[in-house]
Amino acid sequence: MVGVPHSSGCATCVKRRIKCDERLPGCAKCEKYGTACPGYDRGFKFITGKPYRTPRQRPKPDTSSTSEERAKTESLITGSRFQASLQAIVLKEQPWSLTYGDANVMQSIEALIQDFSQPALPTQKHIVSQWFGFLPSVYGHNQTLDASIKSFTAHHFGKALQNGQMIAYARSAYGEALYRLRKALKDPSECLSSHVFYSVVLLCMYELFTDTEDPESWMKHAKGLGQLVKIRGPERYRNDLDITLLKVSRGLIVMQSMFSGEPCFLATEEWHQMMRQQRALDISLELHNSIEQFFAYFTYAPSLVHKFYHLKHTDITTPEALQIISATMEQALDMQKKLLLWHEQFSQIAPPPVENLASTDDPLYPIILTYSNMTDATIYCGYYAYMAIIHEVLRTFGYPGPHAQMVIYFRDQICRSVEYSSVGILGPNRLGFPLRIAIEVADSATRSWILARLDQFSKVYAASQPKNYEPILTSNI
After folding, report:
1. Pfam families under this entry (predicted)?
2. What local confidence, expressed as pLDDT, does residue 300 receive?
């Protein structure tokens, strides 16, 4: 390819025509030479090329009332109309040649936003996709954030176009971003800034999409993210960017708490009140309050799970254990009552799912659930997962009622939602918590079904690798 250097070393070593050791964040040759190493990544640019078109496919017969909607959203990455402008991405010769506000980076950011916003309509954006919309306004103001943006953007399009050079560039930019982040976190004037917070969220998301080695990588990054959120304190989340990033982060923070055995710091009225006060303009007050009420309840899930799994490995005949069992069942029953009332109210605001035929001949779940939009689907699936936990607690400790059947019902509600909720690049991210709970209470057939879906998701979203869904609650708590 014209204009692509053969060496992967730093620019200084390439210019001096010597072998670079490629040490991060800077090579030893530059250090010995007495100059600052410029790093290894190569900026990327767009070159005019022929528009990309997906192969024309023969239309299939309409099998349900939602077939037309599915046809619009069936692709995760391939076939995106935004790949047209990305088909001819190449690397520049000079490292870090993208200056602040560079049109090439801005062009790729705009395409990234469009890709990650699918399949939601402009008026039905999911909170996780909304935060990408801030990228154009923050790029060019902070070096740590700029490197994080380049890394995430290059990886996304490198995977989409199967471009190994772009993926390598993304890794290099990621190393640069981590190096700068460590320095920023030591700087009192910068460590609590919105830019650093955005960088941490973006790098955490990068790991969720890329890490294929460490099954618990997501927990390590979620823990760091939670520590930063906690240190910043509730009073710092007062602008649209910060509150959006917090609402993106809180699901991961609660999950990390649940599966690590650590208390969830978000489970306080101070945090709940702050988040209730921050409402996006494109959501009604009634829907906002209902969603925030659910998330407030959700922050108490880790404490219930911690008690439950502690007792599963304890002699429950001791007086101390019997006291904990009583308190655990009391908490489960109280939350069940609250969630049932919440669900009754929420279903008046957000239409419940409707049943439709699956798009494939699925022998286990031939009837699926479809929703009004992705936000509703996410909240409903979170509710199913929470109720599955509650009924599993009550079933295990012998509380009267059909709790075993209810566990199966809510588990199946999650699985029946997978076809609808998994659409789009962020689909696997939305399903992370519900499927993790579903697989914990699954029989062998359902577990095999879930693992097969996770294997499909992992081609795009590394955190969905089946090995990451081995039972971890019993081993860590």
Report:
1. Fungal_trans_2, Zn_clus
2. 97
